[in-house]
Structures are given as structure tokens and as C-alpha cells.
Specification:
Elements (H helix, E strand, L loop, with lengths): L14 E5 L32 H12 L5 E5 L9 H8 L6 E6 L4 H11 L3 E5 L5 H8 L5 H14 L5 E6 L8 H8 L5 E6 L17 H11 L2 E3 L10 E5 L5 E5 L12 E4 L4 E3 L8 E2 L1 H5 L4 H13 L5 H4 L12 H4 L2
Parallel strand pairs: 1-2, 1-10, 2-3, 3-4, 4-5, 5-6, 6-9
Antiparallel strand pairs: 7-8, 8-9, 10-11, 11-12
Bound molecules: iron/sulfur cluster.
Length: 336
């Protein structure tokens, strides 16, 4: 076991997000706009994707650097066939906090399999309860009812509490935030409201489309009084608030107006085996070449250690209208 690896700001590597596919069955306008990810878009070939064995090998090396939480993402991870086999491999280590983020389109069918394989929790992306708005935002006409059925099934099999992520975009779904809070209040599930971010370089991000979290706090507080709660752990992404009446909590992920880079402990692994040390990175470090050309675990571990030790990332602290235009890696490629 190598000692815990810290970056130039003393942030430890604790949290690895693993994209298992760059494909998705939705075309959310703020992530994979249809105009870019159309019929002719060249997605990664199967042979370019890391195999489950390769991912498992890398996870063991990352654990040596202090990683204790794995989030499986995509694209949409549940479109990767037999994903439960990977979950099973990773769950051999019961101390690992194993979670997954999904659009829940396939969750009703897969929840039990994932739970049996050892998955601990799920986070579901749901941007509106209004069926018309939701269908427009996912841009593949997918109904809200099926997502809610997936959440219900996840809850039934014990993948709970379910976290529900709502990306709030001004003029698109911001008037639905209170309704979202109302719907999940008292259910034990936790809604997190996410400020619209300039991820990648294809979602047409503009500052005026951002609804600052404090605005939503005021809106929700008027209907349901809330108060702030201490974080569960250092580096927790969502700022926690609870209902004063004791009926649960909600969260706010405010990368644009309240940067949280100071405690960022996250690295991201793309589906083809490149590591990114920030969601807004412009380039990654390839590990697949080493995996497939006889590189030893030690060599791979040195690459990861050196990369993290040299890390200075703090994009959200330095974001400007200019930086927003940079050719950053797409979120669908490395997961949120
Ligand atoms: S902007 Fe980058 S460094 Fe800052 S919190 Fe997000 S991922 Fe971490």
C-alpha cells in the first residue's frame, strides 16, 4: 500500500469516477446535444473500451493511492452490456463505496441485478417532473414515468437513499425546482439541484442560463423551510440542507457560483483509459497503452502518483467567459 497521495494543494485522491461507455440513449441538450452527437457521430469501438478486467486492475492500483469511493458513470453506464459483472468484480472489496449515476431509463430492469452484484447506491439524473419539459430536455422523447419507475425499483431492492440530480437551466426548467422538492420530500430520497455548467465545449453554455443555488434556496425555503447541514465528509460535492420539519434533506451543487475546488478529491477515468484530474480538463493521461503493452502495476502506479502529486486544478475558481470557450473534455466522455 503506497501512502495516500496528495496534490499540490494537499488534496488527497479519494474518489474515482469511471466512465464505462461514451454512449448514451438520451441526448440531453446540456450534455450530448443531438446536433453534435447525431447519427454519424463516431463513438468508441468496443475494442477501444477498457475491458472489465482492465478497469478492475486499475481500480486496485488507484486504491493504493487512497481511493475509497468508485462512481460508475458514462455516457449512460447501463447501456454497457453485463455491467453487473464489473460491479461484482469491484464489490469483492466490501470496504469500497460503490455507486453509479444513471438516467434510469434501464434501471427498472437492472436494479435487482446491480444490487445482487454488490452496488451500494444509485444517483439518478432527472431534470423535470413535467413530462413535456423532460422529454424536450432528454431530446429522445423519454417519459418521466419510466424514470420514476426506475427510482421506485431501486428503492424496493435497497439501492437507497436514491440521490436525484436536477440540472437547472434558466428559462428551461427552473420553475420546476420547488415541484421537484415537493415530490421527493419525505421519501428519504435526496434531490440535488445542480447549477448549469460549462462542461465540454458543445452545450452552448452562457452565464445567463445559470440559476445561482442561493436563488433556489430562497425559492424552496418559502414553500418548505430549510436550514444548512454540515457535510458528511471533506470533499462532499453537494452542499446539504434539511427541511426544518424533519422530512429529509436536499442538496445544491454550485460549481459556478460557489466553487468547491479547495476540497476536490476526484479523478476521472474515461472509457478508453485516460485519467483526467478535473471535470473541466482539456487533456487526459493515457493508461491503456501501458495496460496493453506489458506495463507493470508499479509503472502504472507511478504514472498515477506523479500525475496527482503535480495536480493544481481549480477551474471553478478561475472560470471566465473566456475559459468557458476552451476545448474542454466532454462530460459524456468522462462522466459528471
Ligand atoms: S472544477 Fe475541477 S478541481 Fe474544481 S471541483 Fe470541479 S473537478 Fe475539482
Amino acid at each position: 500500500m503506497q501512502s495516500e497521495t496528495a496534490d499540490t494543494r494537499g488534496r488527497h485522491l479519494r474518489d474515482l469516477r469511471i466512465s464505462v461507455t461514451d454512449r448514451c440513449n438520451f441526448r440531453c441538450t446540456y450534455c450530448m446535444p443531438k446536433e453534435v452527437y447525431g447519427r454519424d457521430f463516431q463513438f468508441l469501438e468496443r475494442s477501444q473500451l477498457l475491458s472489465f478486467d482492465e478497469i478492475n486492475r486499475l481500480v486496485n492500483i488507484f486504491k493504493d493511492h487512497g481511493v475509497e469511493k468508485i462512481r460508475i458513470t458514462g455516457g449512460e453506464p447501463l447501456v454497457r452490456r453485463q455491467l453487473e459483472r464489473l460491479i461484482e468484480m469491484l464489490a469483492q472489496d466490501p470496504s469500497l463505496d460503490l455507486t453509479l449515476t444513471t438516467n434510469a431509463s434501464l434501471l427498472k430492469q437492472k436494479a435487482q441485478l446491480l444490487k445482487d452484484a454488490g452496488l451500494k447506491r444509485v444517483t439518478v439524473s432527472l431534470d423535470s417532473l413535467d413530462d413535456t419539459v423532460f422529454r424536450a430536455m432528454n431530446d429522445v422523447d423519454f417519459p418521466v414515468a419510466k424514470v420514476l419507475a426506475g427510482i421506485e425499483e431501486a428503492d424496493r431492492v435497497g439501492l437507497n437513499p436514491v440521490k436525484v440530480n436536477m440540472v437547472v437551466k434558466r428559462g428551461v426548467n427552473d420553475s420546476a425546482a420547488v415541484e421537484m422538492a415537493r415530490y421527493f420530500k419525505g421519501t428519504g430520497h435526496i434531490v440535488r439541484f445542480i447549477e448549469f455548467m460549462d462542461v465540454g465545449h458543445t452545450n452552448g453554455w452562457q452565464m445567463e442560463h445559470v440559476v445561482p443555488s442561493r436563488e433556489l434556496v430562497e425559492q424552496i425555503n418559502q414553500s418548505f423551510p430549510i436550514e444548512p447541514v454540515e457535510p458528511n465528509y471533506t470533499g462532499e460535492v453537494a452542499e446539504r440542507w434539511r427541511y426544518v420539519d424533519g422530512s429529509g434533506e436536499i442538496g445544491f451543487i454550485s460549481s459556478v457560483t460557489q466553487a468547491f475546488c479547495r476540497d476536490c478529491t476526484r479523478a476521472r477515468l474515461s472509457a478508453e483509459g485516460s485519467v483526467y484530474t478535473c471535470l473541466f480538463a482539456t487533456r487526459g493521461t493515457d493508461l491503456r497503452m501501458l495496460l496493453r503493452t506489458g506495463g507493470t502495476d508499479e509503472q502504472i502506479s507511478d504514472v498515477i502518483g506523479n500525475l496527482w502529486r503535480a495536480r493544481t486544478d481549480n477551474y471553478s475558481e478561475v472560470r471566465t467567459a473566456e475559459t468557458a470557450k476552451q476545448r474542454k473534455v466532454e462530460m459524456s466522455y468522462i462522466g459528471g
